[in-house]
Amino acid sequence: MTDTFASAPASPSAAAYTVPQERRVLTAIPGPKSVEMHKRRLESVSTGVSSTLPVYIKKANGAILVDLDDNHFIDLGAGIGVTTVGHTEANVVEAATNQVQEFIHTLFTITPYEEYIRVAELLAAHTPGDFKKKSVLINSGAEAVENGVKIARKYTGRRAVAVLDHAYHGRTVLTMAMNYKAMPYATGFGPLASDVYHAPSSYPYHDGLSGADAAERTITYLEKVIGASDLACLVVEPIQGEGGFMVPADGYLPLLQEWCTANGVVMIADEIQSGMARTGAYYASEHFGWVPDLVLTAKGIAGGLPLAAVTGRAEIMDASQPGGLGGTFGGNPVACAAAIAVFESIERNDLLAEGARIEKALLAGLTKLKSKYDIIGDIRGKGAMIAIELVQPGTGDTTKLPNAAAVSSIAAFAAQHGVLLLTAGTYGNVLRFLPSLAVTDALIADALTVIDHAIAAL
Ligand code: PLZ
User: Fold this and answer.
1) Are both 143 and 268 inside the same structural domain?
2) Quick one: average pLDDT of 153-158?
3) Which range marks the domain in which residue 62 is found?
4) Which of the listed residues 199, 350, 411, 434 has the most CB atoms within 10 Å of its CB?
5) Ligand 1 centroid vs 170 CA: distance in angstroms?
6) Maximum Cα–Cα distance for the chain, whole Å?
7) Among 348, 364, 385, which residue terminates a domain?
8) Is the pLDDT of residue 12 over 80?
9) Is residue 106 situated within a structural domain?
10) 298 lines ligand 1 (CB under 6 A)
Protein backbone atom coordinates (compact mmCIF):
# COMPACT_ATOMS: atom_id res chain seq x y z
CA MET A 1 0.00 0.00 0.00
CA THR A 2 2.73 2.40 -0.97
CA ASP A 3 0.85 4.24 -3.63
CA THR A 4 -1.15 7.39 -3.02
CA PHE A 5 -2.75 9.67 -5.52
CA ALA A 6 -0.59 12.54 -4.36
CA SER A 7 2.76 10.85 -4.84
CA ALA A 8 2.45 8.41 -7.70
CA PRO A 9 0.61 9.71 -10.74
CA ALA A 10 0.10 6.88 -13.20
CA SER A 11 -0.99 8.90 -16.15
CA PRO A 12 -1.54 12.52 -17.07
CA SER A 13 -5.04 12.26 -15.59
CA ALA A 14 -3.74 11.03 -12.21
CA ALA A 15 -3.95 14.51 -10.76
CA ALA A 16 -7.71 14.30 -11.18
CA TYR A 17 -8.16 11.26 -8.91
CA THR A 18 -10.91 11.83 -6.36
CA VAL A 19 -10.18 8.67 -4.37
CA PRO A 20 -6.70 7.77 -3.10
CA GLN A 21 -5.32 5.00 -5.28
CA GLU A 22 -4.59 2.56 -2.50
CA ARG A 23 -5.96 -0.59 -0.90
CA ARG A 24 -7.59 -0.22 2.53
CA VAL A 25 -9.37 -2.99 4.40
CA LEU A 26 -11.16 -1.68 7.48
CA THR A 27 -13.68 -4.45 8.22
CA ALA A 28 -14.30 -8.11 7.58
CA ILE A 29 -15.31 -8.56 3.91
CA PRO A 30 -18.19 -8.07 3.36
CA GLY A 31 -18.45 -5.43 6.07
CA PRO A 32 -21.50 -4.89 8.30
CA LYS A 33 -23.16 -2.29 6.06
CA SER A 34 -22.77 -4.52 3.01
CA VAL A 35 -24.17 -7.47 4.95
CA GLU A 36 -27.25 -5.40 5.84
CA MET A 37 -27.66 -4.24 2.24
CA HIS A 38 -27.36 -7.80 1.03
CA LYS A 39 -30.28 -8.89 3.22
CA ARG A 40 -32.37 -6.09 1.73
CA ARG A 41 -31.36 -7.11 -1.78
CA LEU A 42 -32.44 -10.70 -1.26
CA GLU A 43 -35.99 -9.49 -0.58
CA SER A 44 -36.41 -7.73 -3.91
CA VAL A 45 -33.74 -8.72 -6.43
CA SER A 46 -34.12 -12.00 -8.30
CA THR A 47 -31.75 -14.69 -7.09
CA GLY A 48 -31.11 -15.40 -10.78
CA VAL A 49 -28.86 -12.34 -10.61
CA SER A 50 -25.82 -13.16 -8.51
CA SER A 51 -22.79 -11.06 -7.49
CA THR A 52 -19.16 -12.19 -7.42
CA LEU A 53 -18.32 -10.10 -4.37
CA PRO A 54 -21.32 -8.76 -2.45
CA VAL A 55 -19.69 -5.61 -1.16
CA TYR A 56 -21.94 -2.70 -2.05
CA ILE A 57 -20.17 0.16 -3.78
CA LYS A 58 -20.74 3.82 -2.99
CA LYS A 59 -17.89 5.41 -4.94
CA ALA A 60 -15.30 4.49 -7.53
CA ASN A 61 -12.42 6.36 -9.13
CA GLY A 62 -9.39 5.33 -11.14
CA ALA A 63 -8.72 1.70 -10.22
CA ILE A 64 -10.30 1.81 -6.75
CA LEU A 65 -13.77 0.77 -5.58
CA VAL A 66 -15.01 2.09 -2.22
CA ASP A 67 -17.72 0.11 -0.43
CA LEU A 68 -20.35 1.17 2.12
CA ASP A 69 -17.96 0.25 4.94
CA ASP A 70 -15.19 2.44 3.46
CA ASN A 71 -13.07 -0.49 2.35
CA HIS A 72 -10.98 0.43 -0.72
CA PHE A 73 -10.55 -2.39 -3.24
CA ILE A 74 -7.98 -2.59 -6.01
CA ASP A 75 -10.28 -3.27 -8.94
CA LEU A 76 -8.72 -5.79 -11.29
CA GLY A 77 -12.01 -6.38 -13.08
CA ALA A 78 -13.19 -2.91 -14.17
CA GLY A 79 -16.79 -4.14 -14.25
CA ILE A 80 -15.64 -6.92 -16.63
CA GLY A 81 -13.62 -4.70 -18.87
CA VAL A 82 -15.92 -1.68 -18.96
CA THR A 83 -14.23 1.18 -17.11
CA THR A 84 -11.14 0.85 -19.28
CA VAL A 85 -10.21 4.53 -19.00
CA GLY A 86 -10.72 4.32 -15.22
CA HIS A 87 -13.71 4.73 -12.95
CA THR A 88 -15.36 8.16 -13.14
CA GLU A 89 -12.66 9.38 -15.50
CA ALA A 90 -12.74 13.19 -15.38
CA ASN A 91 -13.19 13.76 -19.12
CA VAL A 92 -16.04 11.22 -19.32
CA VAL A 93 -17.80 12.67 -16.27
CA GLU A 94 -17.59 16.18 -17.69
CA ALA A 95 -18.84 15.20 -21.15
CA ALA A 96 -21.75 13.15 -19.82
CA THR A 97 -22.71 15.87 -17.32
CA ASN A 98 -22.72 18.51 -20.03
CA GLN A 99 -24.82 16.33 -22.34
CA VAL A 100 -27.38 15.60 -19.61
CA GLN A 101 -27.97 19.33 -19.39
CA GLU A 102 -28.46 19.75 -23.14
CA PHE A 103 -30.78 16.82 -23.92
CA ILE A 104 -30.93 13.23 -22.68
CA HIS A 105 -32.99 11.44 -25.28
CA THR A 106 -34.77 11.99 -28.56
CA LEU A 107 -34.29 8.61 -30.31
CA PHE A 108 -31.91 8.75 -33.25
CA THR A 109 -34.42 6.99 -35.51
CA ILE A 110 -36.97 9.73 -34.81
CA THR A 111 -35.00 12.98 -34.52
CA PRO A 112 -31.23 12.44 -34.90
CA TYR A 113 -28.22 14.29 -33.42
CA GLU A 114 -24.54 14.84 -34.11
CA GLU A 115 -23.10 12.79 -31.22
CA TYR A 116 -24.24 9.51 -32.81
CA ILE A 117 -22.58 10.44 -36.09
CA ARG A 118 -19.35 11.43 -34.31
CA VAL A 119 -19.16 8.04 -32.57
CA ALA A 120 -19.69 6.30 -35.92
CA GLU A 121 -16.89 8.41 -37.43
CA LEU A 122 -14.54 7.57 -34.55
CA LEU A 123 -15.35 3.87 -34.86
CA ALA A 124 -14.68 3.98 -38.61
CA ALA A 125 -11.33 5.65 -37.93
CA HIS A 126 -10.18 3.29 -35.17
CA THR A 127 -11.46 -0.18 -36.13
CA PRO A 128 -9.06 -2.27 -38.25
CA GLY A 129 -9.11 -1.93 -42.06
CA ASP A 130 -8.65 0.88 -44.59
CA PHE A 131 -12.00 0.64 -46.34
CA LYS A 132 -15.25 2.57 -46.17
CA LYS A 133 -17.01 1.66 -42.91
CA LYS A 134 -20.37 2.34 -41.34
CA SER A 135 -21.89 1.64 -37.91
CA VAL A 136 -25.11 1.04 -36.03
CA LEU A 137 -25.23 1.88 -32.32
CA ILE A 138 -27.10 -0.21 -29.74
CA ASN A 139 -27.04 -0.74 -25.98
CA SER A 140 -25.21 -3.89 -25.00
CA GLY A 141 -22.71 -6.45 -26.14
CA ALA A 142 -25.32 -9.13 -26.74
CA GLU A 143 -27.33 -6.67 -28.80
CA ALA A 144 -24.23 -5.98 -30.90
CA VAL A 145 -23.82 -9.72 -31.51
CA GLU A 146 -27.51 -10.03 -32.45
CA ASN A 147 -27.25 -7.13 -34.90
CA GLY A 148 -24.03 -8.48 -36.39
CA VAL A 149 -25.82 -11.75 -37.09
CA LYS A 150 -28.89 -10.00 -38.55
CA ILE A 151 -26.74 -7.87 -40.87
CA ALA A 152 -24.63 -10.83 -42.00
CA ARG A 153 -27.73 -12.91 -42.75
CA LYS A 154 -29.33 -10.08 -44.70
CA TYR A 155 -26.13 -9.44 -46.69
CA THR A 156 -25.44 -13.08 -47.52
CA GLY A 157 -28.98 -14.43 -47.69
CA ARG A 158 -27.70 -17.41 -45.69
CA ARG A 159 -28.90 -18.96 -42.44
CA ALA A 160 -26.05 -20.45 -40.41
CA VAL A 161 -23.99 -18.82 -37.67
CA ALA A 162 -20.67 -20.32 -36.56
CA VAL A 163 -18.81 -19.65 -33.33
CA LEU A 164 -15.78 -21.23 -31.69
CA ASP A 165 -15.45 -23.58 -28.76
CA HIS A 166 -14.99 -21.73 -25.44
CA ALA A 167 -16.81 -18.66 -26.83
CA TYR A 168 -19.01 -16.29 -24.88
CA HIS A 169 -21.35 -13.92 -26.72
CA GLY A 170 -24.17 -12.97 -24.33
CA ARG A 171 -27.36 -13.80 -22.50
CA THR A 172 -30.13 -13.09 -25.02
CA VAL A 173 -32.11 -15.90 -26.61
CA LEU A 174 -29.88 -16.01 -29.71
CA THR A 175 -26.56 -15.39 -27.97
CA MET A 176 -27.07 -17.97 -25.23
CA ALA A 177 -27.00 -20.53 -28.05
CA MET A 178 -23.64 -19.09 -29.15
CA ASN A 179 -21.91 -19.66 -25.79
CA TYR A 180 -19.82 -22.73 -25.09
CA LYS A 181 -21.01 -23.18 -21.53
CA ALA A 182 -24.61 -24.19 -20.95
CA MET A 183 -24.30 -23.61 -17.22
CA PRO A 184 -25.29 -21.04 -16.10
CA TYR A 185 -26.12 -19.23 -19.33
CA ALA A 186 -28.57 -21.55 -21.12
CA THR A 187 -29.52 -24.38 -18.77
CA GLY A 188 -33.31 -24.50 -18.55
CA PHE A 189 -33.76 -21.43 -20.76
CA GLY A 190 -34.24 -23.34 -24.02
CA PRO A 191 -35.23 -24.13 -26.67
CA LEU A 192 -32.07 -22.65 -28.10
CA ALA A 193 -31.91 -20.77 -31.39
CA SER A 194 -31.25 -23.02 -34.34
CA ASP A 195 -28.54 -22.79 -37.00
CA VAL A 196 -25.76 -22.02 -34.50
CA TYR A 197 -22.65 -24.21 -34.88
CA HIS A 198 -19.67 -24.57 -32.57
CA ALA A 199 -16.38 -25.11 -34.38
CA PRO A 200 -13.06 -26.11 -32.79
CA SER A 201 -10.87 -23.14 -31.79
CA SER A 202 -7.18 -22.43 -31.29
CA TYR A 203 -6.10 -23.00 -27.68
CA PRO A 204 -2.32 -23.39 -27.92
CA TYR A 205 -1.71 -24.34 -24.27
CA HIS A 206 -3.96 -27.37 -24.67
CA ASP A 207 -4.01 -28.29 -28.36
CA GLY A 208 -0.37 -27.48 -29.20
CA LEU A 209 -1.43 -26.75 -32.78
CA SER A 210 0.17 -24.13 -35.03
CA GLY A 211 -2.10 -21.41 -36.36
CA ALA A 212 -2.20 -23.12 -39.75
CA ASP A 213 -3.14 -26.53 -38.29
CA ALA A 214 -5.77 -25.06 -35.96
CA ALA A 215 -7.24 -23.04 -38.86
CA GLU A 216 -7.39 -26.16 -41.02
CA ARG A 217 -9.25 -28.00 -38.25
CA THR A 218 -11.77 -25.14 -37.89
CA ILE A 219 -12.29 -24.79 -41.65
CA THR A 220 -12.79 -28.55 -42.08
CA TYR A 221 -15.56 -28.38 -39.49
CA LEU A 222 -17.20 -25.39 -41.23
CA GLU A 223 -17.04 -27.05 -44.64
CA LYS A 224 -18.18 -30.51 -43.54
CA VAL A 225 -20.75 -29.77 -40.84
CA ILE A 226 -22.35 -26.58 -42.24
CA GLY A 227 -21.15 -26.08 -45.82
CA ALA A 228 -19.86 -22.66 -46.85
CA SER A 229 -22.89 -21.90 -49.03
CA ASP A 230 -25.19 -21.95 -45.99
CA LEU A 231 -22.88 -20.04 -43.66
CA ALA A 232 -23.74 -16.37 -43.08
CA CYS A 233 -21.08 -15.52 -40.51
CA LEU A 234 -18.29 -16.73 -38.29
CA VAL A 235 -18.20 -14.82 -35.00
CA VAL A 236 -14.87 -14.89 -33.15
CA GLU A 237 -13.39 -13.19 -30.08
CA PRO A 238 -9.76 -12.43 -31.03
CA ILE A 239 -8.84 -13.15 -27.40
CA GLN A 240 -11.58 -15.20 -25.79
CA GLY A 241 -12.87 -13.47 -22.67
CA GLU A 242 -15.10 -15.56 -20.42
CA GLY A 243 -13.49 -18.69 -21.89
CA GLY A 244 -10.19 -17.78 -20.22
CA PHE A 245 -8.25 -15.24 -22.32
CA MET A 246 -7.08 -17.76 -24.89
CA VAL A 247 -4.68 -16.14 -27.32
CA PRO A 248 -4.92 -17.96 -30.66
CA ALA A 249 -1.79 -19.28 -32.38
CA ASP A 250 -0.10 -16.98 -34.90
CA GLY A 251 -1.77 -16.94 -38.27
CA TYR A 252 -4.99 -18.57 -37.09
CA LEU A 253 -7.29 -15.56 -37.40
CA PRO A 254 -6.01 -14.21 -40.76
CA LEU A 255 -6.31 -17.72 -42.24
CA LEU A 256 -9.94 -17.95 -41.12
CA GLN A 257 -10.59 -14.50 -42.57
CA GLU A 258 -9.00 -15.56 -45.86
CA TRP A 259 -11.28 -18.59 -46.03
CA CYS A 260 -14.36 -16.52 -45.12
CA THR A 261 -13.57 -13.94 -47.80
CA ALA A 262 -13.03 -16.63 -50.42
CA ASN A 263 -16.36 -18.26 -49.49
CA GLY A 264 -18.57 -15.18 -49.10
CA VAL A 265 -18.86 -15.64 -45.32
CA VAL A 266 -18.94 -12.50 -43.13
CA MET A 267 -16.28 -12.80 -40.43
CA ILE A 268 -17.17 -10.85 -37.30
CA ALA A 269 -14.75 -9.88 -34.52
CA ASP A 270 -16.44 -9.89 -31.13
CA GLU A 271 -14.17 -7.26 -29.55
CA ILE A 272 -16.65 -6.58 -26.78
CA GLN A 273 -14.20 -7.59 -24.04
CA SER A 274 -10.87 -7.24 -25.89
CA GLY A 275 -11.50 -3.96 -27.67
CA MET A 276 -11.38 -0.24 -26.99
CA ALA A 277 -7.70 0.24 -26.19
CA ARG A 278 -7.56 -2.49 -23.56
CA THR A 279 -4.79 -4.60 -25.07
CA GLY A 280 -2.32 -1.91 -26.09
CA ALA A 281 -4.09 -1.51 -29.43
CA TYR A 282 -7.52 -0.08 -30.13
CA TYR A 283 -8.67 -3.58 -31.09
CA ALA A 284 -7.02 -6.90 -30.20
CA SER A 285 -7.49 -8.09 -33.81
CA GLU A 286 -4.61 -5.78 -34.72
CA HIS A 287 -2.13 -7.90 -32.72
CA PHE A 288 -2.86 -10.83 -35.02
CA GLY A 289 -2.90 -8.97 -38.34
CA TRP A 290 -6.61 -9.70 -38.62
CA VAL A 291 -8.86 -7.29 -40.51
CA PRO A 292 -12.44 -8.47 -39.83
CA ASP A 293 -15.45 -7.64 -42.00
CA LEU A 294 -17.45 -6.44 -38.99
CA VAL A 295 -16.27 -5.46 -35.51
CA LEU A 296 -18.45 -5.52 -32.38
CA THR A 297 -17.67 -2.93 -29.70
CA ALA A 298 -19.35 -2.51 -26.30
CA LYS A 299 -18.16 -2.48 -22.66
CA GLY A 300 -15.25 0.01 -22.64
CA ILE A 301 -16.50 2.36 -25.33
CA ALA A 302 -18.40 4.80 -23.11
CA GLY A 303 -16.47 4.74 -19.84
CA GLY A 304 -19.24 2.84 -18.04
CA LEU A 305 -22.37 4.09 -19.78
CA PRO A 306 -24.28 1.53 -21.84
CA LEU A 307 -23.35 1.74 -25.51
CA ALA A 308 -22.42 -0.79 -28.17
CA ALA A 309 -21.79 -0.83 -31.89
CA VAL A 310 -21.51 -2.92 -35.00
CA THR A 311 -18.96 -1.37 -37.37
CA GLY A 312 -17.71 -2.65 -40.67
CA ARG A 313 -17.58 -2.75 -44.42
CA ALA A 314 -20.08 -0.22 -45.75
CA GLU A 315 -21.55 -2.60 -48.33
CA ILE A 316 -22.36 -5.15 -45.61
CA MET A 317 -23.61 -2.55 -43.10
CA ASP A 318 -25.91 -1.09 -45.78
CA ALA A 319 -27.52 -4.45 -46.62
CA SER A 320 -30.48 -3.89 -44.29
CA GLN A 321 -33.67 -2.28 -45.53
CA PRO A 322 -34.16 1.24 -44.08
CA GLY A 323 -35.75 0.86 -40.66
CA GLY A 324 -34.40 -2.67 -40.25
CA LEU A 325 -31.93 -1.67 -37.54
CA GLY A 326 -32.41 0.43 -34.42
CA GLY A 327 -33.95 0.40 -30.95
CA THR A 328 -35.23 2.99 -28.48
CA PHE A 329 -32.06 3.66 -26.51
CA GLY A 330 -29.43 2.72 -29.12
CA GLY A 331 -26.83 5.48 -29.38
CA ASN A 332 -28.23 7.44 -26.46
CA PRO A 333 -26.76 10.97 -26.59
CA VAL A 334 -25.31 10.87 -23.06
CA ALA A 335 -23.62 7.53 -23.78
CA CYS A 336 -22.36 8.92 -27.11
CA ALA A 337 -20.94 12.04 -25.42
CA ALA A 338 -19.15 9.77 -22.95
CA ALA A 339 -17.81 7.63 -25.81
CA ILE A 340 -16.43 10.68 -27.62
CA ALA A 341 -14.68 11.60 -24.35
CA VAL A 342 -13.27 8.07 -24.07
CA PHE A 343 -11.74 8.32 -27.55
CA GLU A 344 -10.31 11.74 -26.61
CA SER A 345 -8.83 10.41 -23.38
CA ILE A 346 -7.22 7.47 -25.17
CA GLU A 347 -5.46 9.89 -27.51
CA ARG A 348 -4.70 12.65 -25.02
CA ASN A 349 -3.38 10.36 -22.30
CA ASP A 350 -1.69 7.91 -24.68
CA LEU A 351 -3.64 5.04 -23.16
CA LEU A 352 -2.39 2.51 -25.71
CA ALA A 353 1.00 2.90 -24.02
CA GLU A 354 -0.67 2.35 -20.63
CA GLY A 355 -1.93 -1.02 -21.89
CA ALA A 356 1.64 -1.97 -22.80
CA ARG A 357 2.90 -0.76 -19.40
CA ILE A 358 0.33 -2.88 -17.56
CA GLU A 359 1.15 -5.94 -19.66
CA LYS A 360 4.83 -5.57 -18.76
CA ALA A 361 4.14 -5.18 -15.04
CA LEU A 362 1.68 -8.08 -14.91
CA LEU A 363 3.79 -10.46 -16.99
CA ALA A 364 6.91 -9.74 -14.94
CA GLY A 365 5.11 -10.30 -11.63
CA LEU A 366 3.19 -13.36 -12.78
CA THR A 367 6.29 -14.96 -14.30
CA LYS A 368 7.98 -14.71 -10.89
CA LEU A 369 4.95 -16.36 -9.29
CA LYS A 370 4.96 -19.10 -11.92
CA SER A 371 8.57 -19.99 -11.08
CA LYS A 372 7.53 -20.28 -7.44
CA TYR A 373 4.24 -22.17 -7.79
CA ASP A 374 3.78 -25.04 -10.23
CA ILE A 375 -0.01 -24.73 -10.15
CA ILE A 376 0.37 -21.76 -12.52
CA GLY A 377 0.32 -23.65 -15.80
CA ASP A 378 0.05 -20.83 -18.31
CA ILE A 379 0.28 -17.03 -18.43
CA ARG A 380 -1.30 -15.40 -21.47
CA GLY A 381 -2.99 -12.31 -22.85
CA LYS A 382 -2.19 -8.84 -24.10
CA GLY A 383 -2.12 -5.42 -22.45
CA ALA A 384 -4.58 -5.07 -19.59
CA MET A 385 -6.12 -8.44 -20.48
CA ILE A 386 -3.86 -11.06 -18.89
CA ALA A 387 -4.76 -14.39 -17.30
CA ILE A 388 -3.20 -17.32 -15.53
CA GLU A 389 -4.54 -20.85 -15.94
CA LEU A 390 -4.25 -22.93 -12.79
CA VAL A 391 -3.63 -26.66 -12.96
CA GLN A 392 -3.28 -29.52 -10.52
CA PRO A 393 0.22 -29.65 -8.97
CA GLY A 394 2.73 -31.33 -11.26
CA THR A 395 0.47 -31.42 -14.34
CA GLY A 396 1.46 -28.06 -15.89
CA ASP A 397 3.62 -29.60 -18.60
CA THR A 398 1.68 -32.82 -19.06
CA THR A 399 -2.06 -33.36 -18.57
CA LYS A 400 -2.77 -29.78 -17.42
CA LEU A 401 -5.65 -30.85 -15.22
CA PRO A 402 -7.81 -27.87 -14.25
CA ASN A 403 -7.59 -26.53 -10.71
CA ALA A 404 -10.81 -24.61 -10.14
CA ALA A 405 -10.57 -25.03 -6.37
CA ALA A 406 -7.32 -23.04 -6.28
CA VAL A 407 -8.89 -20.28 -8.38
CA SER A 408 -11.87 -19.98 -6.01
CA SER A 409 -9.62 -19.93 -2.93
CA ILE A 410 -7.26 -17.32 -4.39
CA ALA A 411 -10.13 -15.05 -5.48
CA ALA A 412 -11.73 -15.36 -2.03
CA PHE A 413 -8.43 -14.64 -0.24
CA ALA A 414 -7.79 -11.64 -2.51
CA ALA A 415 -11.25 -10.23 -1.78
CA GLN A 416 -10.66 -10.55 1.95
CA HIS A 417 -7.50 -8.51 1.45
CA GLY A 418 -8.99 -5.78 -0.72
CA VAL A 419 -8.28 -7.07 -4.22
CA LEU A 420 -11.13 -7.72 -6.63
CA LEU A 421 -10.04 -10.46 -8.99
CA LEU A 422 -12.23 -12.06 -11.67
CA THR A 423 -12.30 -15.73 -12.47
CA ALA A 424 -12.93 -17.23 -15.92
CA GLY A 425 -12.46 -20.35 -17.97
CA THR A 426 -14.57 -23.15 -19.31
CA TYR A 427 -13.37 -25.21 -16.34
CA GLY A 428 -13.37 -22.28 -13.89
CA ASN A 429 -9.60 -22.55 -13.54
CA VAL A 430 -8.50 -19.17 -14.87
CA LEU A 431 -7.78 -15.96 -12.95
CA ARG A 432 -8.05 -12.90 -15.12
CA PHE A 433 -6.48 -9.51 -14.74
CA LEU A 434 -8.72 -7.00 -16.48
CA PRO A 435 -7.93 -3.71 -14.71
CA SER A 436 -8.60 -0.24 -15.98
CA LEU A 437 -5.74 1.49 -17.73
CA ALA A 438 -5.54 3.80 -14.72
CA VAL A 439 -4.13 1.05 -12.51
CA THR A 440 -0.64 2.06 -11.34
CA ASP A 441 2.39 -0.20 -11.25
CA ALA A 442 2.34 0.20 -7.47
CA LEU A 443 -1.24 -1.10 -7.28
CA ILE A 444 -0.33 -4.03 -9.54
CA ALA A 445 2.68 -4.87 -7.34
CA ASP A 446 0.52 -4.65 -4.22
CA ALA A 447 -2.18 -6.88 -5.72
CA LEU A 448 0.40 -9.45 -6.84
CA THR A 449 1.80 -9.60 -3.30
CA VAL A 450 -1.69 -10.42 -2.06
CA ILE A 451 -2.00 -13.14 -4.72
CA ASP A 452 1.41 -14.53 -3.75
CA HIS A 453 0.17 -14.84 -0.14
CA ALA A 454 -3.08 -16.35 -1.40
CA ILE A 455 -1.29 -19.11 -3.28
CA ALA A 456 1.09 -19.72 -0.36
CA ALA A 457 -1.96 -20.13 1.89
CA LEU A 458 -3.60 -22.82 -0.28
N1 PLZ B 1 -19.22 -10.85 -26.06
C2 PLZ B 1 -16.84 -11.29 -25.74
O3 PLZ B 1 -17.32 -10.63 -23.02
C4 PLZ B 1 -19.89 -9.85 -21.97
C5 PLZ B 1 -20.53 -11.00 -19.19
C6 PLZ B 1 -21.03 -10.54 -17.89
P7 PLZ B 1 -23.23 -7.73 -22.68
N8 PLZ B 1 -19.03 -10.45 -21.01
C9 PLZ B 1 -19.33 -10.23 -19.62
C10 PLZ B 1 -22.19 -11.37 -17.49
O11 PLZ B 1 -21.98 -12.27 -16.67
O12 PLZ B 1 -23.29 -11.14 -17.97
C13 PLZ B 1 -19.64 -10.17 -23.41
C14 PLZ B 1 -18.37 -10.56 -23.88
C15 PLZ B 1 -18.19 -10.89 -25.22
C16 PLZ B 1 -20.44 -10.47 -25.67
C17 PLZ B 1 -20.68 -10.11 -24.34
C18 PLZ B 1 -22.06 -9.69 -23.96
O19 PLZ B 1 -22.06 -8.33 -23.60
O20 PLZ B 1 -22.99 -6.25 -22.71
O21 PLZ B 1 -23.07 -8.35 -21.33
O22 PLZ B 1 -24.51 -8.11 -23.34
Assistant:
1) yes
2) 98
3) 14-75+351-456
4) 434
5) 5
6) 63
7) 348
8) no
9) yes
10) yes
